[in-house]
Amino acid sequence: MRLLRHLFAPSSRRLFPEDSLQRITEAIATGERQHRGEVMFAVESNLPPGAVVAGMEARDRAQDVFVRLRTWDTEANNGVLIYLLLADHRIEIVADRGLAGRVSDAEWAAVCRLIEQEMRAGHPEQAVIDGIRAVSDLLAMHWPQSDGQPDEDELPNRPHLLD
Gene3D superfamilies annotated for this entry (predicted)? Predict the structure, then answer.
């Protein structure tokens, strides 16, 4: 059954057309003005059949994407990836080690539930934007912008469509 879901998964490009991607990019940039962390968003329609048959889970793929997109490559180790795997209806958040012990698993899970709620309501763009805002609020609590400390945009804000 899972293999069929991956073979016939909805297109991430249909759910997130260019104008939607632009608004998501702007939401990331706006959020990053309130904190010194880095937020990335990636969406993937499906996994390759071999990965599905091998039992690859969304969490494992999200961690691979975190590395592949170099979300970890920030000076303060405070990058966060919001990852959607459409075929499995999964949302994963992978945070770099600089956030360990600062943001709890329960707080990340609450963000995932927020995104899931809007996705189920049929509002994918709003789901992602709400998730970005929630992640930005958490980062602002732990890595706030500081006057006199210039913040460099270390990672691209543009969403990644991985298929």
Answer: 3.10.310.50
28 close to 39: Cβ distance less than 8 angstroms: yes
Q: Whole-angstrom Cα distance, residue 49 to residue 145?
A: 43
CB proximity list for 112: less than 8 A, separation 6 or greater: 91, 92, 93, 131
Residue ranges and CATH numbers for the domains of the chain are: 2-145+157-161 (3.10.310.50)
Alpha-carbon distances of 74 from 38, 78, 141, 153, 161, rounded to whole Å: 8, 7, 18, 9, 22
Q: What is the mean pLDDT of each run of 10 residues along the chain (163 residues)?
A: 93 96 97 93 96 96 97 92 97 95 94 97 97 97 78 90 91
Amino acid at 11: S
Query: Closest by alpha carbon to 91, among 112, 67, 70?
Result: 112
